[in-house]
Amino acid sequence: MGISLVRIDYAPYGQPRLTRILVAERSLSLSKEHYIYVRAIGMIHFQVNIGKIPAIAFAGLSSQNAVVITITHAAFGSNSLIDPRALGLAKAFQLDAIIVKELQAKFGA
């Protein structure tokens, strides 16, 4: 069916790879125990264990070979041109709007 289930072991202050559906077995970041959330494909995100003990999560991935999507391509290499002022890319990355336009040109936007 194109979905893989995995167990993720979070070392203290550790960060795993990309996930689509995540169930927190212990408290993760701002999540509560047994909290479930879904992320859209290509949405920039990460999980990190900010605790002092290991944490465990179970995730459903969109395929058996989950990939890494780099922030630069997701933010600056979009097929549709993203106006740096409209979405606040310049402010979010603390860059001048001219720099954002140059990055978009380099990453194919």
UniProtKB/TrEMBL annotation:
Domain Cupin type-1: from-to ranges: 41-97
The keyword Signal is annotated on this UniProt entry: yes
Keyword Signal: yes
Superkingdom, natural source: Eukaryota
Name of a matching Pfam family: Cupin_1
UniProt keyword terms in alphabetical order: Signal
SUPFAM superfamilies attached to this UniProt entry: RmlC-like cupins
Species annotation: Microthlaspi erraticum
Gene3D superfamilies, per database record: Jelly Rolls
Coiled-coil blocks: none
Protein name listed in UniProt: Cupin type-1 domain-containing protein
